[in-house]
TrEMBL record:
Pfam families: DLH (PF01738)
Main location: cytoplasm
Family classification: Belongs to the dienelactone hydrolase family.
Coiled coil feature spans: none
Keyword Repeat found: no
Residues annotated as domain Dienelactone hydrolase: 30-244
Gene3D superfamilies xrefs: alpha/beta hydrolase (3.40.50.1820)
Molecular-function GO terms, alphabetical: hydrolase activity
Name by which UniProt lists this protein: Carboxymethylenebutenolidase homolog
Keywords, ordered alphabetically: Cytoplasm
Length: 245
């Protein structure tokens, strides 16, 4: 990740002006954005934000899309009140900033959100999707919480040294072919480890020509050449949740 000119894979993307159809709520020690579908449901999806935090319009757009497809969608502040990264921040300080926001140390927040979904929303089945930083977090949660019935990890950075294959329930991994920060050999390694060790359903899919963040950071009508892959990634994400929840 130590690319000096762009040390992080994240640019803010195209969608700045989306307001959101849901509301903000307090979930124990953290805030969250929640959107519910028109018809009542017992299925919920936790949406995990990228480095730009839980208030990023792009991520709320994804939560609203999941709600429109029949899920209670909740996007909690997994930074627990710590500041999200801003595009204007000094990238030379990014690694230090990231050290205090470990995507694998979110169990306290996950516990609070799962309890809220059960007690306040009547959820009986839960899943998780995560983008970038949240992709790492979703991968972690799918190896930790048996009650999460399905997971989708979108372009989460892969560390060779990590235990990455002991998934507890079906998990779908989405990557872009032209992601400058997740080399394809790492994606291949992930797939090999999963094939060797994983006991549940999984899929690893690479989308041709796509860069980091393409599913949630790109507007289809601004990027016509990417539109088929943006739509395919979103459809694949929703279909995976439908299949296993």
């Amino acid at each position: 990740m130590a690319n000096e000119s762009r040390p992080c894979p994240c640019d803010i993307g195209d969608r700045f002006d989306y307001g959101g159809r849901g509301q903000e709520v307090q979930v124990e020690h953290i805030k969250a954005y929640i959107c519910k579908p028109p018809a009542s449901t017992e299925k919920a999806v936790i949406v995990i934000h990228d480095i730009f935090g839980w208030q990023l319009p792009n991520t709320r757009y994804m939560a609203d899309m999941l709600a429109a497809n029949g899920y209670i969608a909740i996007c909690p502040d997994f930074f627990a009140g710590k500041e999200a990264w801003k595009p204007s921040d000094d990238w030379s300080k990014f690694d230090d900033w990231l050290k205090t926001r470990d995507a694998r140390k979110i169990n306290k927040e996950a516990d609070a959100v799962l309890k809220y979904l059960k007690e306040q929303c009547g959820a009986k089945k839960s899943g998780v999707v995560g983008f970038c930083w949240g992709g790492v977090a979703a991968h972690h949660l799918m190896m930790t919480y048996l009650e999460l019935k399905a997971g989708v990890s979108l372009y989460g950075l892969i560390k060779d040294s990590d235990d990455i294959s002991n998934l507890l329930n079906p998990t779908f991994f989405i990557f872009g072919e032209k992601d400058d920060f997740i080399p394809l050999h790492q994606v291949t390694l992930l797939e090999q480890k999963l094939k060797k060790n994983c006991k549940v359903d999984f899929e690893v899919k690479v989308y041709p020509g796509q860069t980091h963040g393409f599913v949630h950071r790109r507007r289809e009508h601004i990027n016509p050449q990417d539109k088929p892959y943006i739509e395919e990634g979103r459809k694949d994400m929703i279909n995976w949740l439908h299949k296993y929840m």
